[in-house]
Design brief:
Order of helices and strands: EHEHHHEHEHEEEHEH
Low-confidence stretches: none
Bound molecules: adenosine monophosphate
Mean pLDDT: 93
Strand content: 15-25%
Largest sheet: 5 strands, parallel
Structural class: alpha/beta
Distance between the termini: 13 Å
Oligomer: single chain
Helix content: 40-55%
Radius of gyration: 17 Å
Length: 222
């Protein structure tokens, strides 16, 4: 099995890369942000508890996210591997993830850290549009939908995330940076970390990730 984790600041393109990687490697994509947003839209108890934290650019309490993740990793599709994006966000989550995976005889094979400059991040997030139904990402300038305001894939409406407003983006970046160094060290010590610049075009970044993934894991060469 091939467990891949994508790390990096909000706006580095983790979501976009995770979706494309999941297609290319035929692995399930697990995004904690996306699962949380779905819970908010569905008005579940998890969504109700998480919404305020999310709108303020703060992390949702660890136990809540861990519980959500455990039920996701109980599904059978992760046995062949997974692409995890948005988790872990801090050292404590990294350790929880090891426990969740270990208890299910799953493992992380590689971790990609997508690095991006603050200017590029703010520009990307301020123009980001997300599909209400399938969660696909677009960008007003860099990746516009074929029809304004409508998802290319499922024709549902696109919206701007509340937490993509500039002031909240700055808060999210600050929260991210505070924890990033210890996460990087954690996976470096395990010799699993691959760092790359994510300022380039998404397709270039994707081919770089795939090249490294194929080199590191023979089972992906099908
Ligand atoms: P994202 O889509 O990854 O940018 O996540 C959007 C928001 O969901 C974050 O700003 C947090 O409020 C929340 N969130 C997503 N993943 C996590 C996580 N691993 N731990 C805590 N909160 C999270």
């Amino acid at each position: 099995m091939t467990g891949i984790v994508l790390l990096g600041p909000p706006g580095a393109g983790k979501g976009t890369q995770a979706v494309r990687l999941a297609e290319e490697l035929i692995l399930p994509h697990i995004s904690t942000g996306e699962i949380l947003r779905q819970n908010v839209l569905d008005l579940t108890p998890i969504g109700e508890e998480a919404e305020d934290y999310m709108n303020r650019g703060l992390l949702v309490p660890d136990e809540l996210v861990a519980k959500m993740l455990m039920s996701r990793f109980d599904k059978a599709d992760v046995k062949k591997g997974f692409i995890l994006d948005g988790y872990p966000r801090n050292l404590s989550q990294a350790m929880t993830l090891d426990d969740i995976l270990g208890a299910r005889k799953l493992d992380i094979g590689m971790v990609f850290y997508l690095d991006s400059s603050d200017n590029v991040i703010i520009q990307r997030l301020a123009g980001r549009l997300v599909c209400k139904a399938c969660a696909a990402n677009f960008h007003i300038k860099n990746m516009p939908p074929k029809k304004k305001g409508i998802c290319d894939h499922c024709r549902a409406r696109l919206y701007q995330r509340k937490d993509d407003q500039e002031s909240t983006v700055k808060k999210r970046l600050e929260v991210y940076k505070k924890e990033a160094a210890s996460l990087i060290e954690f996976y470096q010590a395990k010799e699993k970390l691959h760092r790359l610049s994510a300022d380039a075009e998404p397709e270039l970044v994707l081919s770089e990730i795939i090249e490294i993934a194929l080199k590191c894991d023979d089972s992906l060469k099908v």
